[in-house]
Every structure is written in C-alpha cells, then in structure tokens.
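Colleagues,

For the teaching module next term, I've prepared a clean inverse folding example: a structure given as tokens, and then the sequence designed for it. I'd like students to try predicting residues themselves before seeing the answer, so please don't circulate the second half yet.
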C-alpha cells in the first residue's frame, strides 16, 4: 500500500520523532480473545467499526487455554479506509489472523527475538503487481531494480516510520497479485495509514522485544462486533 505511506517522508521529522518517543493514550479494556489456534502469543487490533481509523491493540500470552494481557491496551492507528478486505487500491487494514515472522528497520536491532534485517536505501518491498517479486523484500540499488520502483517502497528512505517494523504476513503464502502488499506493524505519528498498523516507537519497541518466534506469534485484525461475535 505505498500511495499513502509514501507521504511519510514529507511529514515533519520532528513530529514523527516526538510521536515515536511518547506512550499511547489510554483506551478501553479489550475483549478477551476467542482465538483457538496453535499460537501462544497473540496481538489483537480491534476497531470499533469497519471505517474506524484507530483501534485498540493488546498483546496476549497464552498459558493453556487462558489468555493474559501482557502489553496494553494501547491505541493504534490503522488504515485510512478502516478494516476489511485489502487490496493494492484500498487504504484498508486486512481483516484476519496473520503470522508475525520477521522484522526490519532503518535503526539498529532493538532487541527483538524475531529475525531482524537492518535496511538501507537498497532495500525494497515490491508492490508492482506485474512483478514476480510482488509482496516480497528485494535488494537492489535505486534505478537498477527489476520492477517498477514507483510501485514499491524504498524501506531505507521511508523515514522514522520504519525505524523499526514487523512484517504482517498478509498475502504472502500464496502471493496473489493485486491483493495488497507491504503491511507492517511500524512506528506511528498519530495519523491513519495506508493499511499498516502503527503505534508510537516506545510501544513498538516493547512489542518487538516481547515477540518470541518460538511461540508462533500472530496478529488478529478485526472489527469489535465481529471479534466478539
């Protein structure tokens, strides 16, 4: 979803950095998860309506059949068009449950246990629907890439939003051209995204240090009514 996110470098860096260091606003208590899959770590991102541009984010640990809140609830920013079916032409956060298997950032590793890639301006996330590399990471110097660079994100040039980020594994296995690309949990500035989930930098650091790949973490993005049944 590069169209809206490409605006990030144009936002005042001072405002982004201030947001990165602040704590989230208090939010209402989250509903208890109904997730019954194999994951033992779960992040819920619950919007009050399908068109809401913010949501309640909570990180949960499971012990047996019991879920306990480990971090949050926190305020998170989500897609400018809310939550629901995602695509390359919609600024919407993808509803569903997706694994969290890797992380990246312009800044140094913040202590996450996820595999971490430090990115430069030769690191891209491909959003060219005609490319065989669609919705994957690719390394190439600007001007030399084997895809339409205007339909991709230069991760290292994105500014503080990508100081740290976790990849949301939407549309990755299998990859469906046009179904949407480049969905991340990243540093927020308090405004809606093109489909990503964004929180202040200090909150993201806590979440990334908490995530444990041995516990199979997933993220559940949903509207409250559907989440609670």
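(Answer key — instructors only)
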């Amino acid at each position: 979803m590069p169209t809206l996110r490409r605006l990030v470098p144009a936002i005042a860096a001072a405002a982004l950095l201030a947001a990165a260091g602040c704590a989230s606003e208090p939010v209402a208590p989250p509903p208890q998860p109904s997730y019954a899959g194999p994951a033992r770590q779960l992040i819920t991102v619950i919007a009050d309506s399908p068109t809401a541009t913010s949501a309640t984010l909570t990180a949960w640990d499971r012990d047996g059949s019991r879920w306990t809140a480990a971090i949050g609830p926190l305020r998170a920013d989500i897609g400018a068009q809310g939550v629901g079916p995602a695509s390359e032409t919609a600024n919407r956060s993808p509803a569903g449950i997706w694994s969290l298997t890797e992380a990246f950032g312009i800044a140094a590793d913040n202590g996450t246990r996820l595999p971490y890639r430090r990115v430069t301006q030769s690191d891209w996330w491909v959003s060219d629907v005609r490319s065989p590399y669609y919705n994957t990471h690719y390394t190439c110097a600007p001007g030399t890439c084997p895809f339409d660079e205007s339909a991709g994100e230069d991760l290292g040039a994105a500014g503080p939003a990508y100081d740290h980020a976790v990849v949301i594994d939407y549309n990755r296995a299998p990859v469906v051209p046009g179904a949407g690309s480049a969905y991340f949990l990243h540093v927020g500035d308090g405004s809606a995204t093109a489909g990503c989930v964004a929180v202040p930098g200090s909150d993201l650091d806590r979440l990334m240090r908490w995530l444990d790949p041995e516990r199979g973490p997933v993220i559940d993005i949903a509207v409250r009514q559907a989440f609670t049944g």
